[in-house]
Amino acid sequence: MNTQKHPQEKNDRELVDKLLKGQPNDLNLAELARMRIRYRGFPGAKSIQRDLDKLLAQWQLEEETLFEKTRLIHSKGQVYKKNQDEEEHWS
Question: What is the spatial distance between Cα 71 and Cα 59, in angstroms, rounded to a whole number?
Answer without folding.
Answer: 17
